[in-house]
Write a structure and sequence with these properties.
Layout: E1 6-11, E2 19-24, E3 33-38, E4 42-46, E5 51-55, E6 58-68, E7 72-80, E8 89-102, E9 113-125, E10 127-128, E11 140-141
Antiparallel strand pairs: 1-2, 1-9, 2-3, 3-4, 5-6, 6-7, 7-8, 8-9, 10-11
């Protein structure tokens, strides 16, 4: 059995806006890579821009998707479940959490972090990830 090196998640189309996430613990260039796309933005984060924390819930993978000098920031975290592969891929379901970290001019009272959760489904896969960007645009299946 192998541990996945490529995770792809998307929101199920219910009442949530479309959301697509790809996380590679060890991506191109040997750095962690996280792709985030929603209805208003799309961005790829690499290396130190990607925070990975082990927790009793699983791995919590987070990125900052928006920063504002006067309003605060917005981060997105996905709970990555433990997966053992008996083949190339497995279906997974989890949750993504968008957090609005509020700040303001002067003292603020009350709750400063506001959470919104999005159910996610997708796949965990074992792929061959090129170690340099010149090795090809996409990852080939193992």
């Amino acid at each position: 059995m192998t541990e996945p090196d490529y995770y792809q998640f998307h929101s199920s189309h219910g009442h949530h806006a479309p959301l697509h996430v790809v996380w590679m613990p060890l991506g191109v260039g040997g750095l962690s890579s996280f792709e985030y796309a929603d209805s208003t933005r799309s961005h790829t984060f690499r290396g130190k821009e990607v925070s990975v924390v082990e927790s009793p819930l699983g791995r919590v993978v987070s990125v900052t998707i928006e920063t504002s000098i006067d309003r605060g920031s917005t981060s997105f975290s996905v709970l990555v479940p433990s997966v053992n592969l008996n083949g190339h891929s497995a279906t997974v379901s989890t949750v993504g959490i968008t957090t609005l970290h509020r700040i303001g001019i002067g003292p603020m009272t009350g709750q400063l972090d506001v959470y919104s959760e999005t159910p996610l489904i997708g796949t965990a896969e074992s792929r061959i990830i090129p170690l340099d960007e010149g090795a090809g645009a996409g990852a080939a299946r193992a």
